[in-house]
Structure formats: C-alpha cells, structure tokens
C-alpha cells in the first residue's frame, strides 16, 4: 500500500512547471485575441463580443499601405538574399582560401551584433553618400541580415548532404554549373525555403533598421504599429496583432514542417 | 596557359562568394568603419563640418549619467538572463528527458513558436496585461488584493524581456540536455548520490557549455533590446539602445556620441562571442 509520502513523490512537479510555462508563453497572445473581440475600448473586463475592431482595422488605409510597404521590403530583401545567401553558403562549404575565417565571421556578424548598431551604421553610411532614404534603402539594409540568416540555415542543411552525389555528377560529365543547379540545388531547396521564411518573418518584424533607413520615403508596418502603441492600448491594433500572429504561426508551421521532412530525409537508414 | 587555369580556378569562388561579400562589405564593413570614424570626431551633428579627431565622444560615455544608463542595461540583461535560466532550465530538462518521447519535437516547437511572432506585438501584448486597467490588476482586484501600477516599471521590463528571450534559452538548453548521458545519473544514484547531488555533479557539468551559450545569447540580445524598455519601461528605463536611438532619431541629435556608443556595443559583443568561441562548446552555439 503506497504511503502518503510516496504519493506525493509521484506528482510530476517538473511536468506541471513546464505546463505552467507553456501557458505563460501563450497567455499574452490569448489575451490579445480575447481583447480584440471585446466590445469595450477602455475596460479590461468583458463587455460583449464584437467584430468592430476588425471592421475598424479593415477600413484603415494607413495600415494597408504600411502592410504593403512591409511586404515589398520583405519580398525584395528575401528574394535577392535567397540567391546571394545560398551562393555564399555553398561557396563557404566548397572552398578554402586565405581570409575565409574573416569572411565567415563578417557574414555571421548580423546575427549577433544588436540591431541598433547595424541600423546606426547603415544610416551613417547612407548619409555620408547623400543617398536619399526610401523603400530601396530599407531593402538594401534588410538584405544584410536576411543574407546572414539564409546562409546559416542553408549551411546547416549542406552539412547533412552527401557530397558524393555532386562528385558523381561531375564524373558523369556534368559541368560545375549543371552539377550545382541540377544536383545540389534541389537537395538544398527545403533549407533555402525555411531560411527564406525565417528571414521573411524577421524582415516583417524589424523596427530599428527600418526606422533608421526609411526616412519619409516608406512606412513599414512595425513603424506604424510602434508609433500607435507607444501611447497605450489600441483595440484595432489588437485585431491586427491577432491576424499577424496567425499569419506568422502559419509561416512557422510551414518552416518547421520543411525542417522536419528534410531531417527525415537525412536520417541514416536503420 | 598557367594564368588562364588559375583564373578559371578563381572563377568559382568569386561567383559564389563575391556577390554576398560585396554586399556585406558595402553595407556592413564600410558602414562600421564609418561609425568608427565619426565616433572619433568630437560633437558631430548632421551637417556640421568635422573638426579634427579626438576621443571626446568616448570620454562623454564616462560621465555618470551615461554610466548609469550602461549599468542599467547590464542590470536588465543580467536579470533577464537569470530569470530565463531559472525558468528555462526546468522546461528544457522536462522537454529533453521527461516529456513523452514521440511528442518531444512537437512540444519543443510549440514552446518556441511565439518566437516566430513579432517581438513588437509580443511586447505590446504585455501592455494589455500590465496597464493600470489591465488584466493583472483586474484579477488582483477580483481576489481582493491591492492593485498597483505595473506598466512603466523595472518589473515590466524584466517581464517583457524574459518573455521575449525565454524560448532562445530553452532551445539552447534543450540541445545541450538532449545529449546528456543519463546512465551517469543512474550510476551516481546507485552509488548513493541524492538527486540533488546527481544534478549538481552530473547534469550541470555536462550541460555547462549549453548553459554558457544560452546565457550569453540571452544577455547579448537583451542588453541591446530597444522595443521592450521603450514600450514597457518608463522614462527611468533608458537603456543603451534607447540612448543610441535618441542620438540619431530623437531630440538629442549627436551622431558622434551615438556612434561612439555603438562602437562600444559592437566591440563588447564581439569580444564576448570571441571568448565563447575560444573557450566554449562550438556546437552549442552553431546549433541555434
């Protein structure tokens, strides 16, 4: 017969704590979702279900033009970075040359140096060349960190690949370019896509680098949201948050699925 | 002939590494050298002619008012790192060793999923909870407990920062705990070690590299965070990122001083990373 102290021992404290923390991670998001449907503007208490904040949001032309700016920046920066970042990752895995450590170190810098420092540097650079700030300068600046993230994700995928496939292609008479495009690239695709999704989400989220490189030329979504929420709670921003969180949740799910599938492909046969 | 062969050999590396290298050089290396340059020009404001070189901007950082800002940034980061380690370790331990095996990957993904959502919106979400008429005070009032102002306090900054960076900590600790040799724990128990002794003498030493990597990552990212201290902290939560922001886009407008602050930040982060790569476990860093 189990004694009381034995029973107490069976309580999985660790599991309960983890469960609590899982709840904590989702609590703020849940609160936003509930408030976005709350009819009341000021009160935290429930005043009845309403779609009015969503309606208000969809009538807001500024939000849509900001969203458009963000999408242009993110697609532009990610699109170009996908090509350059993938080439860089392949180059780094293939070649040894003097200064490679420095090259690699510089390519990793955007991952670790705080955004504010990158933002400052870019602004000073653009100002010293008297380049007018616009949506193009934001894209150029975003490319720096998009490149770095895509290269890291693709590099980790490259490490798990079988190098002999490319050699076999070369032995069978493929040109290096053919081997790259027809053998290596298809194998890298899941990594490239998940790197792009990560970079896309980061670009859509970026506040500091956009603030420093936008000038009056463009107004990406995070800037618009930031200037509104600085002064307190805005129910229509609750609604916007919920929609954006759902969208990034979807992107995350796709990225994780791709990562999972590529891991399965790479898993050695039992 | 020899030259042509050599050129052909260079063609591949240049085609693959050239474009990205050019971009990083143009928009990362040269700009960093430029801020180093203008950080050495005293009192530079936009449009002002440069007036010789000097260390005035760096000396300005040593004024008590700015040293307090730096100390506060370090305090925010140290506090956030400790909270993330204390809360994150049990979660990562449970995920890596106790959670049902077939659900582990999915549970880990679920825990770090909020990382994919906008950091700005996650900070904003806490405003709804912490503001005077927010959820926290509503709950406290219902329980008959005293309500208070949570927003624009140091506590709010710690809550916001810990919430933002906890997933990173869990991710890194998980990678490290997953590799834990649990047979050693069993052996320790067989030899009469209490669970606590086993934890301190087996688990912690084996995961020390992961703990160091997680702490460093959280420390570095939280020391330079801008959004959380600005949205959740008050006027008295000025940290180094907000200070730099003000030198460029705020009312202060002192590019030379702002550049000097940025240089100090870049230098400190680079040294910390170099130390970790030199003395730490490389794999625990690259896996994140």
Automatic annotation (TrEMBL), chain A:
Entry-linked InterPro entries: Bact_Polyamine_Transport, MetI-like, MetI-like_sf
Any one annotated GO CC term: plasma membrane
Residue ranges crossing the lipid bilayer per the database entry: 12-37, 71-96, 108-129, 135-158, 237-258
Cleaved signal peptide residues: none
Subcellular location: Cell membrane
Domain of life: Bacteria
GO biological process: transmembrane transport
ABC transmembrane type-1 domain mapped to chain residues: 67-255
Membrane association type: Multi-pass membrane protein
The keyword ATP-binding appears for this protein: no
SUPFAM superfamilies: MetI-like (SSF161098)
A Pfam family that the UniProt record links to this protein: BPD_transp_1
Major location (coarse): membrane
Record keyword Cell membrane present: yes
PROSITE patterns, sorted: ABC_TM1
Keywords: Cell membrane, Membrane, Transmembrane, Transmembrane helix, Transport
Family from the record: Belongs to the binding-protein-dependent transport system permease family. CysTW subfamily.
UniProt name for this protein: Phosphate transporter permease subunit PtsA
